Amino acid sequence: MHIAIPLYAGYDAMDALGPYFVLRNIPGATVTFVAERPGVIPDEEVTLTATASFADVPRPDVVVVPGTRDVKQSILDEALIHYVKTAHATTTWTTSVCVGSLALGAAGLLEGVRATTHWVAHDLLVQFGAQPVDERFVQDGKIITSAGVLAGIDMALHLASLLAGEDMAMAIQLGLEYAPQPPFNAGTPKTAPEEITAFVRSVLRPA
Amino acid sequence: MHIAIPLYAGYDAMDALGPYFVLRNIPGATVTFVAERPGVIPDEEVTLTATASFADVPRPDVVVVPGTRDVKQSILDEALIHYVKTAHATTTWTTSVCVGSLALGAAGLLEGVRATTHWVAHDLLVQFGAQPVDERFVQDGKIITSAGVLAGIDMALHLASLLAGEDMAMAIQLGLEYAPQPPFNAGTPKTAPEEITAFVRSVLRPA
Fold this sequence. Notes:
The structure is a homodimer.
Chain A: E1 2-6, H1 13-23, E2 30-35, E3 39-42, E4 47-50, E5 52-53, E6 62-65, H2 78-88, E7 93-96, H3 100-106, E8 114-115, E9 131-132, E10 137-140, E11 143-146, H4 151-164, H5 166-175, H6 194-204
Parallel strand pairs in A: 1-2, 1-6, 2-5, 6-7, 7-11, 8-9
Antiparallel strand pairs in A: 3-4, 10-11
Helix pairs in contact in A: 1-4, 4-5
Protein backbone atom coordinates (compact mmCIF):
# COMPACT_ATOMS: atom_id res chain seq x y z
CA MET A 1 0.00 0.00 0.00
CA HIS A 2 1.47 3.31 -1.06
CA ILE A 3 0.58 6.58 0.65
CA ALA A 4 1.90 9.73 -1.04
CA ILE A 5 2.23 13.08 0.73
CA PRO A 6 2.94 15.72 -1.94
CA LEU A 7 5.22 18.60 -0.96
CA TYR A 8 5.35 21.87 -2.86
CA ALA A 9 6.48 25.46 -2.40
CA GLY A 10 4.86 26.98 0.67
CA TYR A 11 3.49 23.74 2.18
CA ASP A 12 3.10 23.67 5.95
CA ALA A 13 5.32 20.96 7.43
CA MET A 14 3.03 20.27 10.39
CA ASP A 15 0.13 19.54 8.02
CA ALA A 16 2.31 16.90 6.39
CA LEU A 17 3.87 15.50 9.55
CA GLY A 18 0.76 14.96 11.68
CA PRO A 19 -0.64 12.38 9.25
CA TYR A 20 2.85 11.08 8.49
CA PHE A 21 3.54 10.11 12.10
CA VAL A 22 0.19 8.33 12.28
CA LEU A 23 0.24 6.57 8.92
CA ARG A 24 3.85 5.39 9.01
CA ASN A 25 2.83 2.92 11.72
CA ILE A 26 0.46 0.99 9.44
CA PRO A 27 1.97 -2.43 8.75
CA GLY A 28 2.64 -2.88 5.05
CA ALA A 29 2.15 0.79 4.21
CA THR A 30 4.86 2.86 2.57
CA VAL A 31 4.51 6.58 3.20
CA THR A 32 6.48 8.70 0.75
CA PHE A 33 7.00 12.44 0.54
CA VAL A 34 6.76 13.22 -3.18
CA ALA A 35 7.35 16.46 -5.07
CA GLU A 36 7.70 17.71 -8.61
CA ARG A 37 11.40 16.96 -8.26
CA PRO A 38 12.93 14.89 -5.42
CA GLY A 39 15.10 16.66 -2.88
CA VAL A 40 14.89 18.92 0.10
CA ILE A 41 11.69 20.98 0.15
CA PRO A 42 11.93 23.79 2.69
CA ASP A 43 8.95 24.84 4.74
CA GLU A 44 9.65 28.15 6.46
CA GLU A 45 12.03 26.59 8.96
CA VAL A 46 11.75 22.82 8.89
CA THR A 47 12.95 20.99 5.81
CA LEU A 48 11.53 17.71 4.63
CA THR A 49 13.02 15.62 1.86
CA ALA A 50 10.93 14.31 -1.01
CA THR A 51 12.38 10.90 -1.84
CA ALA A 52 10.43 10.51 -5.07
CA SER A 53 9.01 12.68 -7.82
CA PHE A 54 5.33 12.95 -8.72
CA ALA A 55 6.19 10.91 -11.85
CA ASP A 56 7.76 8.16 -9.71
CA VAL A 57 4.51 7.59 -7.76
CA PRO A 58 1.77 8.18 -10.32
CA ARG A 59 -0.82 5.83 -8.80
CA PRO A 60 -0.62 5.94 -4.99
CA ASP A 61 -3.40 4.19 -3.07
CA VAL A 62 -3.77 7.23 -0.85
CA VAL A 63 -2.89 10.90 -1.32
CA VAL A 64 -2.66 13.28 1.65
CA VAL A 65 -2.37 16.91 0.51
CA PRO A 66 -0.99 19.27 3.17
CA GLY A 67 -1.98 22.92 3.29
CA THR A 68 0.09 26.07 3.29
CA ARG A 69 0.82 28.94 5.64
CA ASP A 70 -0.38 31.34 2.93
CA VAL A 71 -3.90 29.97 2.52
CA LYS A 72 -4.21 30.28 -1.26
CA GLN A 73 -0.74 29.11 -2.24
CA SER A 74 -1.63 25.49 -3.03
CA ILE A 75 -4.15 26.59 -5.66
CA LEU A 76 -1.38 28.26 -7.63
CA ASP A 77 0.89 25.22 -7.90
CA GLU A 78 0.16 23.72 -11.30
CA ALA A 79 2.38 20.66 -10.83
CA LEU A 80 0.64 19.85 -7.55
CA ILE A 81 -2.83 20.34 -9.02
CA HIS A 82 -1.99 18.13 -11.99
CA TYR A 83 -0.63 15.43 -9.66
CA VAL A 84 -3.68 15.48 -7.40
CA LYS A 85 -6.04 15.31 -10.38
CA THR A 86 -4.31 12.40 -12.12
CA ALA A 87 -3.57 10.43 -8.93
CA HIS A 88 -7.21 10.77 -7.82
CA ALA A 89 -8.35 8.73 -10.82
CA THR A 90 -6.96 5.58 -9.23
CA THR A 91 -6.69 6.30 -5.48
CA THR A 92 -8.64 4.46 -2.83
CA TRP A 93 -8.69 7.63 -0.72
CA THR A 94 -7.88 11.21 -1.68
CA THR A 95 -7.39 13.33 1.43
CA SER A 96 -6.26 16.75 2.58
CA VAL A 97 -5.22 18.63 5.68
CA CYS A 98 -6.08 22.27 6.38
CA VAL A 99 -6.17 24.42 3.23
CA GLY A 100 -4.84 21.48 1.23
CA SER A 101 -8.51 20.95 0.38
CA LEU A 102 -8.30 24.04 -1.83
CA ALA A 103 -5.84 22.11 -4.02
CA LEU A 104 -8.42 19.34 -4.31
CA GLY A 105 -10.90 22.01 -5.31
CA ALA A 106 -8.56 23.51 -7.90
CA ALA A 107 -8.11 20.01 -9.32
CA GLY A 108 -11.87 19.88 -9.86
CA LEU A 109 -12.51 17.17 -7.28
CA LEU A 110 -14.88 19.03 -4.95
CA GLU A 111 -17.78 19.81 -7.29
CA GLY A 112 -20.87 19.01 -5.18
CA VAL A 113 -18.69 17.44 -2.49
CA ARG A 114 -19.10 18.03 1.26
CA ALA A 115 -15.71 19.26 2.41
CA THR A 116 -13.90 21.26 5.06
CA THR A 117 -10.70 23.25 5.54
CA HIS A 118 -9.05 25.57 8.09
CA TRP A 119 -11.76 27.75 9.66
CA VAL A 120 -10.14 30.88 8.26
CA ALA A 121 -10.63 29.66 4.68
CA HIS A 122 -14.13 28.12 4.71
CA ASP A 123 -15.49 30.75 2.34
CA LEU A 124 -12.88 29.83 -0.26
CA LEU A 125 -14.29 26.33 -0.74
CA VAL A 126 -17.42 27.58 -2.43
CA GLN A 127 -15.64 28.77 -5.56
CA PHE A 128 -14.84 25.13 -6.31
CA GLY A 129 -18.44 24.00 -6.02
CA ALA A 130 -17.83 22.35 -2.64
CA GLN A 131 -20.37 22.31 0.17
CA PRO A 132 -18.43 23.65 3.16
CA VAL A 133 -19.04 21.62 6.31
CA ASP A 134 -17.97 22.67 9.79
CA GLU A 135 -16.63 19.35 11.06
CA ARG A 136 -13.25 18.05 12.23
CA PHE A 137 -13.00 15.95 9.07
CA VAL A 138 -15.49 15.06 6.37
CA GLN A 139 -15.69 11.90 4.28
CA ASP A 140 -17.68 12.16 1.05
CA GLY A 141 -17.20 9.27 -1.33
CA LYS A 142 -13.49 8.62 -1.42
CA ILE A 143 -12.57 12.19 -0.54
CA ILE A 144 -11.69 13.00 3.07
CA THR A 145 -10.89 16.61 3.95
CA SER A 146 -9.91 17.83 7.39
CA ALA A 147 -10.02 21.12 9.25
CA GLY A 148 -6.90 23.16 10.11
CA VAL A 149 -3.41 21.78 10.80
CA LEU A 150 -3.82 19.47 13.83
CA ALA A 151 -7.17 18.16 12.55
CA GLY A 152 -4.94 16.18 10.22
CA ILE A 153 -4.08 13.89 13.13
CA ASP A 154 -7.75 13.09 13.78
CA MET A 155 -8.32 12.54 10.08
CA ALA A 156 -5.26 10.31 9.79
CA LEU A 157 -6.45 8.09 12.64
CA HIS A 158 -9.78 7.69 10.87
CA LEU A 159 -7.90 6.94 7.64
CA ALA A 160 -5.75 4.39 9.49
CA SER A 161 -8.91 2.62 10.63
CA LEU A 162 -10.18 2.50 7.03
CA LEU A 163 -6.85 1.13 5.80
CA ALA A 164 -5.89 -1.23 8.61
CA GLY A 165 -8.90 -1.63 10.91
CA GLU A 166 -9.98 0.00 14.15
CA ASP A 167 -7.67 -2.08 16.36
CA MET A 168 -4.61 -0.87 14.48
CA ALA A 169 -5.86 2.74 14.56
CA MET A 170 -6.37 2.50 18.32
CA ALA A 171 -2.91 0.96 18.76
CA ILE A 172 -1.38 3.87 16.86
CA GLN A 173 -3.34 6.36 18.97
CA LEU A 174 -2.13 4.66 22.15
CA GLY A 175 1.48 4.56 20.96
CA LEU A 176 1.33 8.30 20.32
CA GLU A 177 -0.44 8.76 23.68
CA TYR A 178 -3.05 10.84 21.89
CA ALA A 179 -5.41 11.57 24.77
CA PRO A 180 -5.45 15.30 24.18
CA GLN A 181 -5.94 17.76 27.04
CA PRO A 182 -5.34 21.23 25.62
CA PRO A 183 -4.84 23.63 28.54
CA PHE A 184 -7.22 26.10 26.88
CA ASN A 185 -10.50 25.71 25.02
CA ALA A 186 -9.62 28.00 22.16
CA GLY A 187 -9.06 25.60 19.26
CA THR A 188 -11.98 26.81 17.13
CA PRO A 189 -13.76 30.14 16.66
CA LYS A 190 -16.79 28.49 18.30
CA THR A 191 -14.99 28.45 21.65
CA ALA A 192 -12.19 31.03 21.36
CA PRO A 193 -12.67 34.58 22.68
CA GLU A 194 -13.86 36.85 19.86
CA GLU A 195 -10.83 39.14 20.02
CA ILE A 196 -8.46 36.17 19.77
CA THR A 197 -10.30 34.97 16.66
CA ALA A 198 -10.10 38.44 15.12
CA PHE A 199 -6.37 38.59 15.84
CA VAL A 200 -5.62 35.17 14.35
CA ARG A 201 -7.76 35.94 11.29
CA SER A 202 -5.80 39.15 10.72
CA VAL A 203 -2.52 37.21 10.87
CA LEU A 204 -3.58 34.32 8.64
CA ARG A 205 -5.61 36.33 6.13
CA PRO A 206 -4.26 39.87 6.17
CA ALA A 207 -6.56 42.29 4.36
CA MET B 1 14.22 34.54 24.22
CA HIS B 2 15.99 31.41 23.10
CA ILE B 3 14.32 28.00 23.09
CA ALA B 4 16.63 25.06 22.38
CA ILE B 5 15.39 21.65 21.22
CA PRO B 6 18.32 19.21 21.47
CA LEU B 7 18.51 16.46 18.85
CA TYR B 8 20.56 13.30 19.31
CA ALA B 9 20.84 9.80 17.90
CA GLY B 10 17.50 8.00 18.12
CA TYR B 11 15.36 11.05 18.96
CA ASP B 12 11.72 10.90 17.86
CA ALA B 13 11.00 13.69 15.39
CA MET B 14 7.33 14.06 16.38
CA ASP B 15 8.35 14.69 20.01
CA ALA B 16 10.50 17.56 18.76
CA LEU B 17 8.07 18.92 16.18
CA GLY B 18 4.88 19.12 18.23
CA PRO B 19 6.38 21.70 20.60
CA TYR B 20 8.32 23.29 17.74
CA PHE B 21 5.19 24.14 15.75
CA VAL B 22 3.60 25.64 18.86
CA LEU B 23 6.58 27.56 20.21
CA ARG B 24 7.79 29.01 16.90
CA ASN B 25 4.72 31.25 16.92
CA ILE B 26 5.75 33.11 20.08
CA PRO B 27 6.71 36.67 19.14
CA GLY B 28 10.35 37.36 19.97
CA ALA B 29 11.21 33.70 20.56
CA THR B 30 13.92 31.93 18.60
CA VAL B 31 13.48 28.17 18.49
CA THR B 32 16.66 26.33 17.51
CA PHE B 33 17.35 22.66 16.94
CA VAL B 34 20.73 22.05 18.56
CA ALA B 35 22.94 18.96 18.60
CA GLU B 36 26.42 17.91 19.57
CA ARG B 37 27.47 18.92 16.08
CA PRO B 38 25.29 20.96 13.69
CA GLY B 39 23.93 19.23 10.62
CA VAL B 40 21.24 16.81 9.53
CA ILE B 41 20.14 14.52 12.36
CA PRO B 42 18.12 11.63 10.99
CA ASP B 43 15.16 10.24 12.86
CA GLU B 44 14.10 6.91 11.39
CA GLU B 45 12.60 8.52 8.31
CA VAL B 46 12.28 12.27 8.80
CA THR B 47 15.43 14.33 9.00
CA LEU B 48 15.73 17.55 10.94
CA THR B 49 18.67 19.88 10.74
CA ALA B 50 20.42 21.18 13.84
CA THR B 51 21.48 24.71 12.99
CA ALA B 52 23.68 25.11 16.06
CA SER B 53 25.83 22.99 18.33
CA PHE B 54 25.26 22.50 22.04
CA ALA B 55 28.30 24.74 22.58
CA ASP B 56 26.73 27.48 20.44
CA VAL B 57 23.66 27.72 22.70
CA PRO B 58 25.00 27.05 26.21
CA ARG B 59 22.42 29.12 28.10
CA PRO B 60 19.01 28.84 26.43
CA ASP B 61 16.04 30.27 28.32
CA VAL B 62 14.08 27.10 27.65
CA VAL B 63 15.13 23.55 26.84
CA VAL B 64 12.67 21.03 25.35
CA VAL B 65 14.11 17.50 25.34
CA PRO B 66 12.37 15.12 22.92
CA GLY B 67 12.15 11.40 23.59
CA THR B 68 13.18 8.41 21.54
CA ARG B 69 11.51 5.49 19.81
CA ASP B 70 13.73 3.14 21.84
CA VAL B 71 12.67 4.26 25.31
CA LYS B 72 16.02 4.12 27.04
CA GLN B 73 18.18 5.61 24.28
CA SER B 74 18.29 9.18 25.60
CA ILE B 75 19.82 8.02 28.88
CA LEU B 76 22.83 6.67 27.03
CA ASP B 77 23.71 9.88 25.20
CA GLU B 78 26.44 11.49 27.26
CA ALA B 79 26.65 14.68 25.21
CA LEU B 80 22.90 15.19 25.57
CA ILE B 81 22.94 14.50 29.31
CA HIS B 82 25.82 16.93 29.78
CA TYR B 83 24.02 19.60 27.77
CA VAL B 84 20.77 19.22 29.69
CA LYS B 85 22.59 19.34 33.02
CA THR B 86 24.63 22.47 32.25
CA ALA B 87 21.83 24.33 30.45
CA HIS B 88 19.44 23.65 33.34
CA ALA B 89 21.61 25.75 35.65
CA THR B 90 20.43 28.92 33.91
CA THR B 91 17.15 28.04 32.19
CA THR B 92 13.83 29.59 33.02
CA TRP B 93 12.10 26.31 32.11
CA THR B 94 13.57 22.87 31.55
CA THR B 95 11.06 20.63 29.80
CA SER B 96 10.70 17.25 28.14
CA VAL B 97 8.38 15.31 25.88
CA CYS B 98 7.68 11.59 26.22
CA VAL B 99 10.71 9.59 27.41
CA GLY B 100 12.84 12.71 27.10
CA SER B 101 12.17 13.01 30.85
CA LEU B 102 14.53 10.06 31.36
CA ALA B 103 17.34 12.26 30.05
CA LEU B 104 16.40 14.85 32.67
CA GLY B 105 16.57 12.05 35.20
CA ALA B 106 19.96 10.86 33.97
CA ALA B 107 21.17 14.46 34.29
CA GLY B 108 20.22 14.32 37.97
CA LEU B 109 17.39 16.84 37.69
CA LEU B 110 14.49 14.71 38.86
CA GLU B 111 15.58 13.82 42.41
CA GLY B 112 12.38 14.26 44.45
CA VAL B 113 10.62 15.88 41.50
CA ARG B 114 7.06 15.06 40.40
CA ALA B 115 7.39 14.04 36.76
CA THR B 116 5.80 12.05 33.96
CA THR B 117 6.75 10.30 30.73
CA HIS B 118 5.23 7.98 28.12
CA TRP B 119 2.88 5.52 29.89
CA VAL B 120 5.04 2.61 28.77
CA ALA B 121 8.05 3.97 30.68
CA HIS B 122 6.57 5.22 33.97
CA ASP B 123 8.43 2.61 36.01
CA LEU B 124 11.76 3.86 34.65
CA LEU B 125 11.37 7.27 36.32
CA VAL B 126 11.82 5.86 39.80
CA GLN B 127 15.50 4.96 39.31
CA PHE B 128 16.20 8.69 39.05
CA GLY B 129 14.45 9.52 42.31
CA ALA B 130 11.47 11.06 40.53
CA GLN B 131 7.90 10.76 41.77
CA PRO B 132 6.01 9.42 38.74
CA VAL B 133 2.72 11.24 38.19
CA ASP B 134 0.01 10.10 35.80
CA GLU B 135 -0.90 13.45 34.25
CA ARG B 136 -0.78 14.94 30.77
CA PHE B 137 2.06 17.19 31.86
CA VAL B 138 3.53 18.04 35.25
CA GLN B 139 5.12 21.28 36.39
CA ASP B 140 7.34 21.03 39.47
CA GLY B 141 9.51 24.06 40.09
CA LYS B 142 10.97 25.00 36.73
CA ILE B 143 10.78 21.47 35.37
CA ILE B 144 7.87 20.55 33.11
CA THR B 145 7.64 16.96 31.86
CA SER B 146 4.95 15.66 29.56
CA ALA B 147 3.44 12.28 28.78
CA GLY B 148 3.99 10.45 25.49
CA VAL B 149 4.60 12.04 22.08
CA LEU B 150 1.48 14.16 21.40
CA ALA B 151 1.27 15.28 25.03
CA GLY B 152 4.13 17.54 23.97
CA ILE B 153 1.61 19.73 22.17
CA ASP B 154 -0.47 20.22 25.33
CA MET B 155 2.69 20.91 27.34
CA ALA B 156 3.95 23.37 24.74
CA LEU B 157 0.70 25.37 24.84
CA HIS B 158 1.03 25.60 28.61
CA LEU B 159 4.65 26.65 28.17
CA ALA B 160 3.59 29.25 25.60
CA SER B 161 1.20 30.73 28.17
CA LEU B 162 4.02 30.92 30.72
CA LEU B 163 6.32 32.60 28.20
CA ALA B 164 3.92 34.88 26.37
CA GLY B 165 0.62 34.93 28.25
CA GLU B 166 -2.66 33.08 27.89
CA ASP B 167 -3.96 35.20 25.03
CA MET B 168 -0.96 34.32 22.87
CA ALA B 169 -1.24 30.64 23.81
CA MET B 170 -4.92 30.66 22.82
CA ALA B 171 -4.09 32.41 19.55
CA ILE B 172 -1.54 29.73 18.74
CA GLN B 173 -4.05 27.00 19.60
CA LEU B 174 -6.64 28.62 17.34
CA GLY B 175 -4.17 29.05 14.48
CA LEU B 176 -3.35 25.35 14.67
CA GLU B 177 -7.09 24.59 14.98
CA TYR B 178 -6.27 22.41 17.97
CA ALA B 179 -9.77 21.37 18.99
CA PRO B 180 -8.98 17.67 19.06
CA GLN B 181 -11.62 15.04 18.27
CA PRO B 182 -9.82 11.70 18.09
CA PRO B 183 -12.12 9.20 16.38
CA PHE B 184 -11.32 6.64 19.10
CA ASN B 185 -10.92 6.89 22.85
CA ALA B 186 -7.76 4.80 23.04
CA GLY B 187 -5.07 7.37 23.78
CA THR B 188 -4.13 6.06 27.23
CA PRO B 189 -4.13 2.62 28.88
CA LYS B 190 -6.95 3.96 31.11
CA THR B 191 -9.33 3.98 28.14
CA ALA B 192 -7.80 1.64 25.55
CA PRO B 193 -8.92 -1.99 25.30
CA GLU B 194 -6.61 -4.21 27.37
CA GLU B 195 -5.41 -6.28 24.43
CA ILE B 196 -4.48 -3.12 22.49
CA THR B 197 -2.44 -1.91 25.45
CA ALA B 198 -0.67 -5.28 25.70
CA PHE B 199 0.09 -5.17 21.97
CA VAL B 200 1.52 -1.64 22.03
CA ARG B 201 3.56 -2.42 25.13
CA SER B 202 5.08 -5.43 23.40
CA VAL B 203 6.05 -3.27 20.42
CA LEU B 204 7.49 -0.34 22.41
CA ARG B 205 9.18 -2.39 25.13
CA PRO B 206 9.92 -5.81 23.70
CA ALA B 207 10.90 -8.34 26.37
